[in-house]
């Protein structure tokens, strides 16, 4: 099933992101995580594209196949293009086809410091256009409520987003954010640019201060004052900051879905305990939103 059909069938789509195990680890190390995530009945699970977006030893297809073919959950395989040749991309697309994967999240990928760009695709919209040629995949794109960290302005970034949609992206998943008003303003801007595809809100539960400092540095996401207060108050209490982070994520989600947001994408960090806590706290609300929908 193409993921866009889920948005046609449901008022609210709920999904998880996971990442492959380290290159030195066996794929079996994630079985227990998937067993627990399966019980939470997500609409789909996205699988990130290896460490640093590297082609060598990439386990994205293997893990996506596990999600789809062993656990019966729709898989969204991430695919980056910045350091891949046309032949690389063709090879991965064919491997995904062979493994019954029907959906791809098309990304440019990170430009690694000190390394030359060797790929034939410099932008995500070019990869989307390439995937669209196959006409066999549902295609998702990424969006950035505060603008991509490398982009000079949010206005320019939304113009780039429009290029992704015009190239064939059928739904979008947002980068994490911690202020819902930022996301609502972003949605208004996308509407003004005639971007009509469903946009999922990406939610990252924060479980420790170092984690969020690293993520903010990479993503450029802004931390609201009330969130900083939480981090400062509980940073030395592991259990308290975990519970506060879960509570903050739940508060975000409840506000988002009550305001009509069409999808929530939870960045699980391969932590089924946190995914379960959040899912159980929001399940009745999600059920209420989808109760009149025949799936």
Automatic annotation (TrEMBL):
Entry's Gene Ontology molecular function annotations: FAD binding; methylenetetrahydrofolate reductase (NADH) activity
Cofactor(s) of this protein: FAD
Recorded catalytic activity of this chain's protein: (6S)-5-methyl-5,6,7,8-tetrahydrofolate + NAD(+) = (6R)-5,10-methylene-5,6,7,8-tetrahydrofolate + NADH + H(+)
Keyword annotations of the record: Amino-acid biosynthesis, FAD, Flavoprotein, Methionine biosynthesis, NAD, Oxidoreductase
Superkingdom to which the source organism belongs: Bacteria
Keyword Secreted found: no
GO cellular component: cytosol
Pfam families: MTHFR (PF02219)
Pathway info: Amino-acid biosynthesis; L-methionine biosynthesis via de novo pathway; One-carbon metabolism; tetrahydrofolate interconversion
Claim: Ribosomal protein is one of the keywords in the record: no
Similarity annotation: Belongs to the methylenetetrahydrofolate reductase family.
Protein name (database record): Methylenetetrahydrofolate reductase
Origin organism lineage: Bacteria, Bacillati, Bacillota, Clostridia, Eubacteriales
Gene name as annotated: metF
């Amino acid at each position: 099933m193409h993921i866009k059909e889920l948005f046609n069938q449901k008022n609210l789509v709920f999904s998880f992101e996971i990442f492959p195990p380290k290159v030195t680890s066996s794929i079996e190390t994630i079985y227990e995580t998937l067993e627990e995530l399966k019980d939470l009945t997500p609409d789909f699970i996205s699988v990130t594209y290896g460490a640093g977006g590297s082609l060598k030893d990439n386990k994205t297809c293997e893990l996506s196949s596990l999600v789809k073919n062993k656990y019966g959950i729709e898989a969204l395989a991430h695919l980056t293009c910045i350091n891949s040749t046309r032949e690389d991309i063709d090879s991965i697309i064919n491997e995904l086809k062979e493994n019954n994967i029907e959906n791809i999240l098309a990304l440019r990928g990170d430009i690694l410091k000190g390394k030359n760009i060797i790929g034939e695709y410099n932008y995500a919209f070019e990869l989307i256009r390439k995937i669209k040629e196959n006409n066999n995949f549902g295609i998702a794109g990424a969006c950035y409520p505060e603008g991509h960290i490398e982009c000079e302005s949010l206005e320019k970034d939304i113009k780039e987003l429009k290029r992704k949609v015009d190239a064939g992206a059928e739904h979008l998943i947002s980068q994490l954010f911690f202020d819902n008003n930022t996301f609502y303003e972003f949605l208004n801007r996308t509407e003004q640019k005639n971007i009509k595809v469903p946009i999922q809100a990406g939610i990252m539960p924060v479980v420790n201060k170092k984690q969020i400092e690293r993520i903010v540095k990479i993503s450029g996401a802004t931390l609201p004052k009330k969130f900083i207060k939480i981090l400062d108050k509980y940073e030395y209490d592991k259990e308290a900051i975990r519970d506060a982070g879960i509570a903050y994520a739940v508060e975000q989600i409840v506000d988002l879905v009550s305001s009509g947001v069409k999808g929530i994408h939870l960045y699980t960090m391969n932590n089924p305990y946190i995914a379960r806590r959040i899912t159980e706290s929001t399940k009745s609300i999600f059920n209420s939103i989808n109760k009149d929908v025949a799936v």
